[in-house]
Amino acid sequence: MFHVGDSIVYPMQGAGLIVAIEEKEILGEKHRYYMINVPIKRLQVMIPIDKVQKSRIRLVADEPTLKHVLDIFQYGQTDTNLSMKERFKINTEKLRMGNFQEGAEVVRDLMRINKKKALNASEKQMLDSALKIFISELGIIRGITESQANDLLNKRVGWVLLILLTLNELKFFKTRRNICFLGNTHTFLQGKEIAVCIQINGCFFYKVKYKYLFGWVHRIEEHM
Q1: Strands, E assignment, 57-175
Q2: Domain coordinates of the chain in residue numbers?
Q3: Which of 165, 180, 194, 201 could cysteine-pair with 158, CB 3.0–4.6 Å?
């Protein structure tokens, strides 16, 4: 049961505020409704109290949950082996369920993919919608503006890679402002090369050989 004044998230719509609980008669039947203001949609939504569970409305996440989700947003891996059709189906289901972490994963993955190659119209629309919903909740939790929330996410959306570098290459990477080394705990010696876990915020021209948990692949990062 929610109360007037609760900040909630309505899946596929965004974060909102319960401004009233009212009884209304519709088609001869009386029901009690949550009256919810959803700012990003500029609308007020009526949800029957007896059907709120089916709507998957939930309370806005708390700060500890947000910190956990932002860590996953920054350091979690993106599955680049999915076809567009598979990815769209999975992401649609994630957004429909309204889970905070899964919504963040949709935004992160589509932002990363979009930096590598422009999304098609359907996925671009999905990213725009998912981003607005995620930012609406982030803004309430942190008490920040939409612009500040966007900046926060852009700083955290880079690729996390485990790469093998020679010493000269390592010196080159350390001069790049858009690369963040993830600490000594992720660095170890392997022959004459050094394996380093890094985060790339944005893209740049440089050919690297890097490794996820499975297999070697090659990539050329393109410029922003």
Answers
A1: 58-59, 159-165
A2: 7-59, 63-156, 159-221
A3: 201
Query: How far, CA to CA in Å, does 74 sit from each of 40, 108, 189, 206?
Result: 25, 8, 25, 22
| Predicted model pTM | 0.69
* Angle 170-171-176 from CA coordinates, rounded to 5°: 95
Residue of 180, 126, 191 lying closest to 156 (CA atoms): 180
| Integer Cα distance of 211 and 200 in angstroms | 14
Class of the CATH-defined domain 63-156: mainly alpha
Among candidates 14, 203, 1, which has minimal Cα distance to 117?
Answer: 203
Task: Phi first, then psi: give them for residue 72, nearest 5 degrees.
Answer: -65, -40
* The domain made up of 7-59 is a member of CATH 2.40.10.170: yes
What percent of the residues of the chain are helix, what percent strand, and what percent coil, each to the nearest 5? 45, 30, 25
pLDDT in tens, 113-151: 888 888 999 999 999 999 999 999 999 999 998 889 888
